[in-house]
Design goal:
With 390 residues, the protein is an alpha+beta fold. Helix content is 30%, strand content 24%. The chain folds into 2 domains: 244 residues, FAD/NAD(P)-binding domain (3-Layer(bba) Sandwich); 135 residues, Elongation Factor Tu (Ef-tu), domain 3. It binds flavin-adenine dinucleotide (FAD). Its cofactor is FAD.
């Protein structure tokens, strides 16, 4: 069967692209190997889909070319997506830091995109295995478990590698390679970090403890909560920092981001109080204070600290350094860092420079957003842009 456009991947970017192209009058076929539509939207944002971020700007994204995402983000903005959400009567709220969530479940967003595809007359086939993709003089031919299809444009929206149990595959990267497009290295991002055994054991009793910190790794610095786990650390501050963390790097946590620890310790010098109890002033859970001070060899009374020890303790409170030994991998990662090199694509259309008619959109591309709705905004923006040009 002949179409104008075939979109592979009925996730966030693929649905947006198919709807946009369909509503332009293009004859669109949307293919996916999964049984259910847009599983990642369904599980996103704890089931409420953090569908965009009011502050989505190019500098909230990681990419070998940090400017690549500018054009798509300008062509389709968070306000454009919000307008669609409002048109469909979907209630939403800002949780914090510009993060917009549905009042009800993520299903509302899936139903909205499904309806937009219906308005564009998009044909959709789920549970369809794609066996072979080949280039022809006037477009692309696909052999699938449901027959052969042809189209002048092919859009690849197969996402990243995270959560393989709900349908993630490396198919998009393999297609890029088949057509000679370069890939940047792939690694799990927005992912919990793990500790070496001795650190993990020391902090295991703290699993579940959460604390506001400023976490930094490489060039990433984020003020949010850290959550101790049985294996290491998680929570928004760590997920954010993980995108900047590389094996061998130290993770640094400012455990008292609002205080001047040196001045505070100076003021308390001579006090009979245990340091662990005094730290409750900053909202530290006692069991965390005790375990942390124990590990720092400092579980004592304030009056027992020498001036030098006060200075060292202040430094560690503002710059506690731990060396993670890895991440929890694609099983727990929200996204994949890296992907189809932006060098191979036009930022204005998302089309491959060397292969007219072939487009890559969404997470399969080397553009990775921060935590907080940025990744969906990239999916909507890049999907829209390709939908306008395919
Ligand atoms: P996907 O949405 O992953 O869609 C890819 C589609 O391609 C899937 O339907 C898949 O079945 C299909 N596919 C894959 N391989 C093949 C193949 N071989 N043949 C046919 N079809 C194939 N981002 C946010 O902005 N806000 C959030 O609240 C948020 N929460 C998240 C929570 C979790 C637990 C996870 C894992 C991610 C979350 N993300 C969130 C990230 C966001 O889900 C992704 O960045 C986004 O879904 C990427 O969109 P995409 O269309 O590129 O890929």
């Amino acid at each position: 069967m002949q179409y104008d456009v075939i979109v592979i991947g009925a996730g966030a970017a693929g649905l947006m692209c198919a709807a946009t192209a369909g509503q332009r009058g293009r004859r669109v076929l949307l293919l996916d190997h999964a049984r259910k539509l847009a599983e990642k939207i369904r599980i996103s944002g704890g089931g409420r889909c953090n569908f965009t971020n009011l502050h989505a700007r190019f500098d909230c994204y990681l990419s070998a070319n940090p400017h690549f995402c500018r054009s798509a983000l300008a062509q389709y903005t968070p306000q454009d997506f919000i307008a669609m959400v409002e048109r469909h009567g979907i209630g939403y709220h800002e949780k914090k830091l510009g993060q917009l969530f549905c009042d009800d479940g993520s299903e509302r967003i899936i139903a909205m995109l499904d309806e937009e595809c219906r308005l564009g007359g998009v044909d959709r086939r789920m549970e369809t295995q794609i066996l072979k993709v080949s280039r022809e003089a006037d477009g692309f031919a696909l052999d699938t478990g449901a027959g052969s299809f042809r189209a002048t444009s092919l859009v690849v929206a197969t996402g990243g590698l995270s959560i393989p149990q709900i349908g993630a595959t490396p198919f998009g990267y393999q297609l890029a390679e088949q057509f000679g497009l370069e890939l940047t290295p792939l690694t799990p991002a927005l992912v919990p970090l793990t500790f070496h055994v001795e650190d993990a054991e020391a902090f295991a009793p703290l699993a579940g403890v959460s604390l506001e910190v400023e976490a930094s790794a490489g060039k990433g610095r984020f003020r949010e909560n850290v959550l101790f786990t049985h294996k290491g650390v998680s929570g928004p501050a760590i997920l954010q920092a993980s995108s900047y963390w590389q094996p061998g790097m130290t993770l640094e946590l400012d455990l008292l981001p609002d205080a001047d620890a040196a001045a505070w310790l100076e003021q308390k010098a001579g006090s009979e109080q245990l340091i662990a109890n005094a730290l409750a002033e900053f909202g530290w859970p006692k069991r965390f204070a005790e375990a942390w001070l124990e590990r720092e060899g400092c579980n004592k009374r304030l009056k027992d600290l020498s001036p030098k020890q006060r200075q060292q303790l202040a430094e560690r409170l503002h710059g506690w350094r731990v060396k993670p030994n890895g991440t929890q991998g694609y099983k727990k990662a929200e996204v994949t860092l890296g992907g189809v090199s932006t060098k191979a694509l036009s930022s204005k259309t998302m089309m491959a420079n060397a292969v007219p008619g072939l487009f890559f959109i969404g997470e399969v591309v080397d553009v990775t957003g921060w935590l907080g709705g940025y990744n969906f905004q990239w999916a909507w923006s890049s999907g829209y842009v390709a939908g306008m040009h395919c």
